[in-house]
Amino acid sequence: MIQAHISVSTQPNEVGPVAILEFWVQALISQHLWYREQPILFLMDHLCKTAFQLMQEDCVHKLLYQQHKNALGYHCDRSLLSSLVSWIVAGNITPSFVEGLATPTQVWFAWTVLNMESIFEEDSQLRRVVEGELVINSAFTPDQALKKAQAQLKLPIVPSLQRLLIYRWAHQALVTPSDHPLLPLIWQKFFLLYLHRPGPQYGLPIDGCIGRRFFQSPAHINLLKEMKRRLTEVADFHHAASKALRIPAEGSEGLPASQAGTPGYLTSPELHTELVRLFNVYILWLEDENFQKGDTYIPSLPKHYDIHRLAKVMQNQQDLWMEYLNMERIHYEFQETVGLWTQAKLESHSTPCNLSVQLDFTDPLLAKERVLSNLQKHETPQPALVLHPLRPPVPVISSASLLSQKDAIQLVRTDLNLLQQQARTAALRESQQVALDSELLDTMPKQYINREEQTTLHLECRGSSGKKCQGAAVVTVQFEGMHKNEAVSQQLHVLRKEVKQLQAEAAKPPSLNIVEAAVHAENLITALVNAYKLQPTPGVQKVGISLFFTVVDYVSDETQRHPPTRQFFTSCIEILGQVFISGTKSECKKVLQTILKNRRLCSLLSPFFTPNAAPAEFIQLYEKVVKFLSEDNSDVVFMLLTKVRCDSVLMLALKCGPRD
Fold it and tell me: Residue limits of the Epg5-like central TPR repeats domain (predicted)?
């Protein structure tokens, strides 16, 4: 349909192909994450092919260029772009419409995108600065030159090395099918970068080409080898095709019967011969090291180097070698697509055999009948699948439980019991680990013992100065030898086995009911807090206060020793304390009593102890603090007194007298 739409637009008195191309491209690229959708990429590939055929690629470049520029963070809000385009990713991967290194299927689309990125690389001066750094600093790697260029140009996103166009064209040339019309031009684009001589741009004498400086690492050296092998394969392909009979071009088979009178397009053997020569020239250009050294006089090269084209490449002349492009095949495939759409359109309006009335497909009043008649051609759709209700993995919090202290406390106690038991199990496992380690440390020194032994050595005598020996000397040696205690060794083996088993149990993830309990308790607290913030009512506040002290009651040595449980309980207490306890006059006394009763809760609850909210009751509270001070809990008292205004402390100190 799109091809037919474009074809109609080229006729006289129509809007022209540019408007149609822009319309369809804008419609497709406005979709979220469109570059990851294969149907959209398929349509974009055909649009790019048509734009190339009509020499209207600029209109596609313009639309893609602007979206690509926005994706890189130019002239737009970064946070808004991140949510809309989802391209700003962590690290240094530069966004691109062609994800990965290359695409073997949507070659026309890749050609358009890479040309658009080439324009951006020139406009941003990225390639010029990178090449300049490589020329000026001979020891620089491409990665170092890229980082230096990014710092100099102040680019919003650090470009990644693999996104440089010299690598993009190389990878695209490797995966493009051998018979694709664009393959010669893709290789031309690569050699325009590979054989570029940037010296004169920086006031330096004309030196060698810059391309080999980008291929110094082992991975890039292997890439060059793959490219040479690929060029040989393509040259062999076209050589075989030039010797064969004239064969239909790829994609030209399957012509409808109604178009049987139109002759199918046949690939020219002469074009295959020219392509063989061109790809053999490419092989010579890729292999010749002298181009990179700068000591080659181009006019002196042999004829098979195609010195005329080589000079154009080294002079950075961007004119495409259209004589190697099979434009007849492109035009034929375009017309074939339009013909297929026209035939499908006519068939869709044909009268079904079971209808007795002829439907006029030009009459808009019969649109409904035409739709129904077309639907009758297809099979009856299958009914929808039966939906089976699924039990939620975590029970849903009912709104009624948020208003009932009894129900809320019962719900949270069920969850906290499981979490507390998990902490006790972890604490018990920790104690067992400590006991086993201690037993290992006590037992290991007993594994080997020294026993006094005696042995007799016969020391040979060879004589000296012609004197003979009377025989070997017999020497008795006493020493302490090391002996292994097998019983202790077996005991150590059992202990190590128990340690491994204990560690394996500790490394297991928590059971599903523990996870459900944590999520359920968190959902209950979150729902309660949200309800109170939405409408602060005394009923919801009472439930929140009850939940706060319920969670506090579950804090124990075991829950504090187990990091996951300690973190969960601390988070629950902080949330409930900030919303329901802090600044609440009626709960100040109860918080203090809880702290005085359990000293380890002081650091946990002191942020929610706000005595200034209850000045009338502060005298009684202070007397309890002073009494607690006599029990050698000065650190706790100091933390509590820091919550009180200075004038209140002085007043009460005078009231209590110098003794206190």
Answer: 584-649
Lowest mean pLDDT: which of 394-408, 462-476, 614-628?
614-628
Q: What angle do CA 256, 261, 263 make, to 5 degrees?
A: 90
Cβ neighbours around 467 below 10 Å, total: 7
Mean per-residue pLDDT of the chain: 79
Residues in the chain: 660
Q: Cβ distance 104 to 175 under 8 Å?
A: yes
How far is 101 from 118, CA to CA, in rounded Å?
15
- Report how far residue 452's alpha carbon sits from residue 529's, in angstroms, rounded to the nearest whole number: 76
Task: Identify the pLDDT of residue 266.
Answer: 52
CA 612 to chain centre: 51
pLDDT of amino acid 615: 57
Q: What is the pTM of this model?
A: 0.51
Q: What's at 212, amino acid-wise?
A: R
Whole-angstrom CA distances from 576 to 156, 392, 567, 579 are 42, 26, 14, 5
Residue 411 half-sphere exposure toward CB, CA atoms < 13 A:
28
Tokens coding 579: 């919303």
End-to-end CA distance of the chain, in Å? 95
- Mean pLDDT, residues 550-575 taken together: 91
State residue 570's pLDDT score.
92
Q: Closest Cα partner for 495 from 448, 554, 444?
A: 444
Q: Distance of alpha carbon 238 from its chain centroid, rounded?
A: 41
Kind plus residue range of the DSSP H or E element containing 456 = strand 448-459
Give me the phi and psi of 255, to 5 degrees please. -65, 135
**Contact criterion met (CB below 8 Å) for 197 and 207:** yes
- Strands, E, within 536-645: which ranges? none
**Does pLDDT of 462 surpass 60?**
yes
3-state secondary structure of 451: strand
In DSSP notation, 85-104 reads H----SSSPPP-SS-SS--S
Torsion angle (degrees, nearest 10) of CA 188, 193, 199, 205? -30
